[in-house]
Design a protein that fits this description.
Order of helices and strands: HHHHHHHEE
Radius of gyration: 20 Å
Number of helices: 7
Number of strands: 2
Distance between the termini: 38 Å
Oligomer: single chain
């Protein structure tokens, strides 16, 4: 899939920007440390476990900041230190696998809302927002969310 995107968008690129290296690793380390110090659930973990979380996430992130952030979200849901360690041993290898796991956790009851939300987030009638693009409204009726696009006048 990523290769298809490169083939399609490659000719449109005017310059390449390399993201990675020491700076990204430092940013990931900073993110992980900050979350481990400030998150209500993760900050209560034993110091040795927090060190293990930091080491494993930074080592396996391969420069993917978003990947590390998603793994921290998953680790927040672990109820015990052994559950944290088990999660650390079975981390997804990349963002695609991470997103696959996130999507698989959506309950069947929530599928219609998740589908509507993803369509809402991905739909675009043109190249991007403009003053004439109109407005999207979201209403809540009981447990249902209703999305409506209002065209510009």
């Amino acid at each position: 899939m990523e290769r298809d995107i490169q083939i399609f968008l490659g000719p449109l690129a005017t310059q390449n920007i390399i993201v990675g290296g020491h700076n990204v690793r430092h940013d990931i380390e900073t993110l992980v440390r900050r979350v481990l110090m400030t998150d209500a659930k993760l900050r209560r973990r034993p110091p040795a476990l927090k060190e293990e979380i930091e080491r494993v996430l930074v080592q396996n992130s391969n420069g993917m900041f978003r990947w590390a952030a998603c793994q921290l979200d998953t680790l927040r849901t672990c109820l015990t230190p052994s559950a944290v360690r088990k999660t650390l041993q079975s981390l997804p290898k990349d963002l695609e696998e991470t997103y696959d796991r996130i999507l698989c956790r959506i309950t069947e009851k929530s599928h219609p809302l998740a589908l509507t939300a993803s369509q809402f987030l991905t739909f675009s009638a043109g190249p991007g927002p403009s003053p004439r693009a109109g407005r999207d409204d979201c209403y809540q009726a009981g447990d249902e969310h209703i999305y409506r696009h209002r065209p510009a006048l």
